[in-house]
Amino acid sequence: MEPEDSRNEYFMRLYEPHHASALAYTRRLTGNDEDARDLLHDSLEAALRAFRTLRRADSFKPWFFRIARNRHINKMRRLKLSRRFLFHVTPETSIQVDERVAERAKLKDAMDVLSPEEREALLLFEVDGFLIKDIARLQRRSISTIKYRLRQGRDKLRNAYFSDTSPPTAWPVPARDDRGG
């Protein structure tokens, strides 16, 4: 086996456990499945070319997500589109379709009040399960800045989402808030 083959195999061993979350992340960035797959493929090629720059195997996930994020931002710049991260709403089929669509639209509207950095930090932390220190590396900011963005983002999201109603009296505290830096 050639060294290039073993390097590619090692890369794929590191990547494989993160494939599903990487695809979900690129879907959120692009807003649709086809563009997400294109971005993921482009990011994989770029990551494989830059694989020698990865210093530690345990940093693979934030390293790869940063590549995907940067590829997306660069594409948006080239297309002269907004750098906003999109939250894609897809309708479901059920008896309560209208209610679910309305809830998703309400959530999307609430997400729109967040800055792109707050939105990204919240999604990475709450949906993808990133550690605060990894989000800090990804966004190239301090851990305290990320904690502030998460707190600020949650407050803005809560206020926007419940602008027409009262929030629940006993607001649940997420169990995963212990993933600090």
List the helices and strands and how they pair.
Elements: H1 3-15, H2 19-30, H3 33-49, H4 60-78, H5 97-111, H6 116-127, H7 132-139, H8 143-161
Helix pairs in contact: 2-3, 2-4, 3-4, 4-7, 5-8, 6-8, 7-8
> Would you identify the CATH H-level superfamily of the largest domain?
RNA polymerase sigma factor, region 2, helix turn helix motif
Rounded to the nearest angstrom, the radius of gyration is 18 Å
Q: What is the strand content?
A: under 5%
Number of domains: 2
**Alpha-beta content class:** mainly alpha
CATH class of the largest domain: Mainly Alpha
Low-confidence stretches: 81-92
Largest sheet entry: none
Helix content percent band:
55-70%
The counted number of beta strands is 0
Average residue pLDDT: 81
Series of H and E elements: HHHHHHHH
**What is the first-to-last residue Cα distance?**
40 Å
Global morphology: globular
Query: What is the architecture of the largest domain at the second tier of CATH?
Result: Orthogonal Bundle
| CATH T-level fold name of the largest domain | Rna Polymerase Sigma Factor, Chain: A
Number of helices: 8
